[in-house]
Amino acid sequence: MLLMLFPLLAIVGLGFYMLREGRDDLVRAHPYARWIMVAALLPLVALIAFSLLFGIGELAADVPGGVFHLLPIIPIVILASQAWHRPVAGGVTLMVPGVVLGATFFGMMQGEIGFKVQGAIIMGVPFLLAGAGFLAAGAVARPAPLVPQH
After folding, report:
1. I want to staple 47 with a disulfide (CB 3.0 to 4.6 A). Which of 62, 96, 120, 126 is the partner?
2. Mind listing the pLDDT tens digit of every residue in the chain (150 residues)?
């Protein structure tokens, strides 16, 4: 349950920021930045597909715990939607749960080091890749700062 707290806090924080600042139309209008943002969504789509696979599989086998595989999909979709509207802030916000979830799963997994690394990669790396992609989209779309000529 504690794992769900960090993405929810990120959603609330970014939500308040978005209410105050609005959409970032500069990034969304840039043609290359838009493609980078689409590519940044792919790791999150893979994580959603992974959760759906286990959730639906367990529900089909009459295991009620399959619902718990489906619950993380909700904050992932909300974070992705917020990152689409504010790519720079959304990129940072996606990276925070990536680090926290990766470290938590690394600490929680039992057994050999390979199992720990695998859990950290499956749960943390998609958020980190998506966050880096949204940050890259923001960097591509921002105009270069003016350098004074001497």
Report:
1. 126
2. 555 566 667 777 777 777 777 777 777 778 888 899 999 999 999 999 988 998 898 888 888 888 888 888 888 898 898 888 888 888 988 888 888 878 877 777 777 777 778 877 888 899 999 999 999 998 888 776 656 666
Residues 6+ apart with CB under 8 A from 99: 124, 128
CB-based contact 40:27 (threshold 8 Å): no
Tokens in use for 37? 């943002």
Contact 51, 72 (CB under 8 A): yes
The contacts of residue 53 (CB under 8 Å, 6+ apart) are none
Sign of the torsion formed by the C-alpha atoms of 25, 26, 32 and 37: negative
